[in-house]
Amino acid sequence: MAQADTQKAELSRQSSPWDRQYSPGVPPSLVRGISPGVPMGEMDDPVPARGSVLGPELAWTGRFCGGLLADMKRRYPYMLSDWTDAFKGRNGQISVAAVLFLFFVVISPALAFGSLMSDSTDGQLGVVETILATAISGVLYSVLAGQPICIMGATGPEYAYTVVFFSLCKALDIEFLPARVWQGLWCSLFTVVLAMTDASAAMSHFTRFVEDIFSLLISLIFIVGAFQNLGKSFDKLSLEGAFLTALLCFGTYLLATWLRAMKRSTMTTPKIRDLIANFGVAISVLVFAGLAQIWRNDVDLEWLEVQGNFEPSWSNPATGKVRSWVVSPFGINKDFPVWAIFFCAIPAMGLAVLGFLDQNLTTIIVNRPASGLKKPTGYHLDLFWCGVFIYPICGFLGLPFTHNSTGPSLIHLMALTTYDDIPVPGGGTRKVASDVVEQRWTNFMVHVLCGAALAFGSVLQYVPKAVTFGIFLVMGVASLAGNQFFERLWLWSVWDRSAYPRYRYVTRVPFSSLHLYTLIQFICFAVLYTLTSISAVAVVFPFFMASLVFVRKSFVWLFTQEELEELDAHEDLPLDDDTDASLKPGDAVKTEQKKIDDSSSV
Asked: What DSSP line would sit under 543-586, residue for residue?
């Protein structure tokens, strides 16, 4: 009987080379949260494997500031190595290349959102404010955060919420910038309370079902955004300018992709291949930005535009002078009413929830087991520093509020990761993270460069916007790798089921359940994409995202527990090898169950 119980506990795992090599929870390299020099038996809380759905960071402590203090205790012993690891061995090359790549990844959305903010707030928030908010919050976050791989910046939901708040201020006849100071202070208070009461523990209910939807959404936003910008160029520019924009965009993408893939080729020597691959995106940007100079005076291309003078965007119409950098919370041209101070607490609650979801959803996706991270993180810690520093500073300086930006965060992670291509039985390959340069230096330097762009904006004016469109394509396509939702969507185009790759969710789940699960996921994805595409309702996006938890919990009435364990496994499960090629969907589980039942009867 004891032997049968042991076998039942291993029901979801087959004894194959994949299991022995990649079994989650076994390799020491996948164990996280261990403080340097502290024996396992002397730690205060358990340290589950990286593949665990609920790690210690998302565990409910039941104590005031319990999770926050635990985050500090787990994370801060790594503070020194977070800086030195950036330059150990070949890490220095990877880190410098990541900074050059990430600079364009971070500055491009800041320019885009800054322009939108200016149009939607009568110039009271603009490009300068958005870049400065990105730089200040990013530098602070890179130094203090529990997960420094996450990138701070303006986000779509935050932009939509700002537009709604601006309209509300106009309707109530109160000044927008002073109102944002009070909104920021109230939001700061609510966020600190959330951090001190273990509120992030609620994120333990988010599974891979939600994570893969969100990840694919970000990928699609970058890809579609690149093509939308290309389409707009045919309306705004001459035919020559539009075609040159398309050539520069696709040229940047193709060259960057080819150079990044050189690491797997046999050209030159391994060291040279690594060097070229690591700096592939930066090389591509320089090449096509340089080529664009040939037609600078002959073809009407669009170029990056950064304001040359370091001053606020808004000029006070009452005085005709540029506003001060510090916004008075008691009013600019008239006294700010007392009732409005307390009224601002209401929209601040929504902003706090928005920040809570943006912060935690991005961090969960970055921290998922497939990322291969080893150092601990700190969900409560990240929220705490946002409440203590970032929201108040942005409020008093009249800057847009920033949160973890999912797309740049995922690209940052990929830029720091070395992948191995593992053959998939039945055809194809799967990228498996073999090493990640976990450190703070790249995040810090990217945002320092963003701040410096305000002083040296004239240099960026030599980079055509078409090159940034190509970078968006690189970001979107590269982030598709390893997304199981995308892999299952691709199966819809494969009509010969015998040609399916032998993923666990293919060999062990009936096709009807497999495609029903994917269909529900696709419907949720379509709703989310619609919400991000319509600015008037974009503010609802994070709240609908949170509701997907309840959609996933309803699956217990549609799928068996065994099917959900395969379809929604938090880690990448070992694949079935070619020795199981005769298995049909669901047969592996049934066959193993029969063996266990036979053993039990004996």
From this structure: HHHHHHHHHHHGGGGTS-HHHHHHHT-SS-PPPP-GGGTTPPTT
